[in-house]
Design a protein that fits this description.
Blueprint (H helix, E strand, L loop, with lengths): L6 H14 L8 H8 L25 H9 L37 H12 L33 H14 L4 H32 L8 H45 L1
Helix pairs in contact: 4-5, 5-6
GO molecular function, one term: structural constituent of ribosome
Main location: mitochondrion
Family: Belongs to the mitochondrion-specific ribosomal protein mS23 family.
Length: about 260
């Protein structure tokens, strides 16, 4: 593949030629810096400027290529190969060099994070507090709970990694211990939220509801009432039919 030269290197060479031809008198500061630290080549791989179609040895002559393009797949003539030989298809795409890509960076916590969020997908939709109360990046992960701050999935992952590194526990044992503590914390939070809601209602507080949710609840209650009335009507009709049939059977027995 053709690689386009660096544009900055061309500027340096052009100015060096101007100095040699006495077309410039002073050497600028940027030229001294470029002499000490020359620019690198461009990392962008441009397409080739030269077409090699039909010029390589394994591509065949131009006449063969034209005949092959004119023929359909059904009437294409197969070349007679000696016994034991296999035809190999050459293509330019297999000859191209791969583009430069940055290496994949993966931390030890990434595998733990994938396992945890695969088993607990709803933790991703739970709101989080992004603000850092202390501003310290080096935190102690020896405990899952840190005072009054909320416990998130990232805390579980950090605490599990701490147990694996400091306590020498296996990944499975550390995961089982951390998740058991995590479930207890979540259960305590749900109980506290329910108790606070009951206490607020006991003091006369009224929970705010969204207009859309209130409308849906009213429609649902109306449908439930309508279904209950229809059920009662059907039950009454069934009772009348049963009573009528019993009277008819009784009258038939008396006449007989």
């Amino acid at each position: 593949m053709y690689k386009k030269p660096s544009a900055a290197r061309g500027v340096q060479q052009t100015y060096e030629q101007l100095l040699k031809a006495n077309l410039r008198e002073q050497v600028p500061a940027w030229l001294r810096a470029m002499r000490k630290v020359p620019p690198t080549d461009s990392l962008v791989r441009d397409p080739s400027y030269f077409s090699t179609k039909g010029k390589l040895a394994f591509e065949g002559s131009s006449k063969d290529s034209v005949d092959a393009e004119n023929e359909s797949g059904a009437t294409r003539i197969k070349r007679a190969l000696p016994k034991g030989c296999v035809s190999i298809r050459h293509s330019k795409r297999h000859l191209r060099t791969r583009s430069t890509r940055p290496p994949k960076i993966e931390f030890p916590e990434d595998r733990l994070r994938r396992v945890f969020y695969k088993n607990h997908p709803f933790e991703l939709s739970r709101p989080r507090i992004v603000m850092e109360p202390t501003g310290q990046t080096n935190q102690d992960w020896s405990q899952l709970t840190r005072g009054s701050s909320q416990v998130t999935g990232e805390d579980v992952i950090r605490h599990q990694y701490y147990l694996m590194q400091s306590k020498g526990m296996s990944e499975h044992d550390a995961y089982a211990q951390v998740t058991s503590e995590f479930y207890k914390i979540r259960a305590r939070e749900e109980i506290e939220a329910k108790m606070a809601q009951q206490e607020a209602r006991a003091y006369g507080a009224r929970m705010l509801e969204k207009p859309f949710s209130a409308t849906l609840l009213s429609l649902e209650k109306r449908e439930i009432r309508g279904s209950a009335k229809a059920f009662e009507l059907r039950k009454e009709e069934q009772r009348l039919r049963t009573a009528t049939s019993e009277k008819m059977f009784a009258a038939a027995g008396e006449t007989a």
